[in-house]
Amino acid sequence: MTAIKLKPISFMVLGMLRLGAKSGYSIKRAADLATDNFWPVSLAQVYPELARLEQHGLVNRHEDPHGDLKRSAYELTEAGETALLSWLRSSVEAPPRVRSEGLLRLFFADALPVDDQLALVRRLRERNRSDREQLHEVSVKSTVGDIRAAGIRFPQIVRSYGESVSSHTEQWFGELESELKEKD
Amino acid sequence: MTAIKLKPISFMVLGMLRLGAKSGYSIKRAADLATDNFWPVSLAQVYPELARLEQHGLVNRHEDPHGDLKRSAYELTEAGETALLSWLRSSVEAPPRVRSEGLLRLFFADALPVDDQLALVRRLRERNRSDREQLHEVSVKSTVGDIRAAGIRFPQIVRSYGESVSSHTEQWFGELESELKEKD
DNA sequence: AAACTCATGTAAGCTGTTACATGATTAC
DNA sequence: GTAATCATGTAACAGCTTACATGAGTTT
To answer: What pTM does this model have?
Structure first.
């Protein structure tokens, strides 16, 4: 119960528990469906983090077998809820990190002849479009997986932000494509 | 000169050399000014990567002292240029990775009372705005650092994409702010 | 009965950052 | 002259991914 350093992955786990996820597995599932585009996680992060949070009294664990299948169910303690709320109110924030091989290619695209530049822009636009399509399919199939409760709307809000940016991006790439066609 | 595995950092280095950077230091400087928002790099990546590329014949190194200051100048070999062009034409692409603590907070914002939700959205909007401002300052001060050559326009294009997305984001957050105010 | 999903964990490895170490040059 | 910038590298660490290992439950 001594000093624990809470990182974003900690709050991801705490937050998912608060939204109704119970097992490590279901946290991972929910994250894949809902946060993968701005905060991906792997099981090899979730399980150790749950153990760490339990050691420090931010979550409680109890056995929750399903037939012969061993399973753990976790819930927030008061300390866990407090920590989550405190983080949500904090303004200390790691700067957002983006790594886009596509934009890196575009950055160096002057090395290509114009028709290859055009092909590149088309590919990037198409990739963006199909990614958005898949995102939308998933969101129709299961709205934020397990976590579907009355009064919970921010997951949808964040999703709609992602779609909005993606639409904007597609439009922007469309305009760039047109400009490049003129020089062709 | 045997098999070398080329990763995005390899092409970042090759690409910067092609745009006129010569030393590892100047590659890092150019990246900080131009690609940091979609492909950050550190010196501890650049120097070993340059050595690796030299070992495999994709770049040439020669001494380029400046007074008593030891300095290396690198240039692309033909193999290096070929590798860069081949990557630029390739459609094999690592999916873009984003990590945004801000969006993660927003995702879990249902846990907060409405006025704190509003404060959070305001903070996120303001952070986005000030980040864009700084980006713009840098871009005025030095257009892509050293790399400023006739016919090079994609670095500017990519920068303008970033600004466009950032503007769109600010607008989107503005609308969200208005919606939340109504419920206040 | 085969394939897929649910479920939990560990080990190894890769990528990338920060800190350390050192020293010359340039700008104020 | 002192601070900032130019310049090159290494070492330690943090974070995250992939592969390994295991087994039960569910769906086709």
So the answer is: 0.95
